[in-house]
Amino acid sequence: MKRCRKLHALICLLLAWLSSSSSSSGTAQAAFQPEQPLLFNFFTGANESWFEYPETAIGGNYTIPTLLERPQVGIAISGGGFRAATLGLGWLRALYMLNITSAARYLTSNSGASWLNAAFSFQDKVPLDAFLGPYI
Question: Taking a C-beta distance cutoff of 8 angstroms, is the pair 79, 41 a contact?
């Protein structure tokens, strides 16, 4: 519990520092004041036999039912800057064409490939066919 309170305080201090930075006119901005307290849940024990991931725990508060319907398949895209994002786009395009991305339970990435992952996972302005582009 102490760790959670320390982390909560650290995050609040960081947000206050970020929001109080000087603007271009040289006047200080007001500190960030959340409308409600920031709450965090920490799940430990992922390497233990008893552990259930919260999003797939049946009957849990964080269960995502559509994940339970998918096979235990994950896609990982490695980092490496812009090259990783470009290469990852080709991989995602191929996996999408094979109908694997819609069947995967998780999509994870690090470093440069995270830019691609964020755009792929959260964009909803265009169909995925158009987003991923044509196979040439």
Answer: no
Q: What is the pLDDT of residue 94?
A: 93
Distance between first and last Cα of the chain: 54
Token pair in block for residue 32: 């960030």
- Note the pLDDT tens digit of each residue in 72-93: 889 999 988 888 889 999 999 9
Bridge partners, 134 (sequence order): none
Q: Which residues contact 20 (CB under 8 A, 6 or more apart)?
A: 28, 29, 30, 31, 32
HEC profile of the chain: CHHHHHHHHHHHHHHHHHHCCECCCCCECCCCCCCCCCCCCCCCCCCCCCCCCHHHCCCCCCCCHHHHCCCCCEEEECCCCHHHHHHHHHHHHHHHHCCCCCCCCEEEECCCHHHHHHHHHHCCCCCHHHHHCCCC
